[in-house]
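HUMAN: Mind making up another protein with tokenized structure?

ASSISTANT:
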Amino acid sequence: MEQDTKAVIQQKFRHLEDALVTEISQESTIRQLAEGENVLQTGQFIRSTILVSDGLLKVYREDEEGNEFLMYYLQPGDACALSIMCTVRNDQSGIKARAVIPSEVILVPAHLTENWLSKYKTWNHFVISSYRQRFEELLQTLDSVAFKALDERLLFYLKRYQQVQGHEVKLSHQQIADELNSSREVISRLLKKLEQRGALQLHRNYIEIIDLDSN
């Protein structure tokens, strides 16, 4: 099992040095996630740093009424920067992380990751890079919410979806409306306008993205 874990880490996290890869494979566990399964819950004390080895995770906030606010996605080779921060500070999670599709994560015990910051240069660089990337994505999300009209927010949402999941958006109009804190009727109207411009095509059970950059 250790050799299998090591092979996965070497494939997905190529920049990590051999000694660190060996230590991760010896100390960590691999967890399989079903589609829709949460690996992080709000208020949970995080005992492990989360590395994504396969699939796709959605990191989001949820209000008291169950409305979701998408923060960013995590793909294979990514680390959940907030899980690293919470493990170091022994804080409770303020976010949720859910598998969008069947996924696989590597759970690294918290007491190790802090020591690795000074022990392994590649881990230090990886953590800093993860923080920077997630911070930039959060700024983009904040800009979209604070400064853009709903049609621009929808376009931003669809572009980000396309980047991580491809050109077929397998979400209902209501699901998109919930993500953008809008109504299904408004989102359907905006999607219809995008279809008329040739940016996408609406099908019965999915939305096919054609060319969002032309709008």
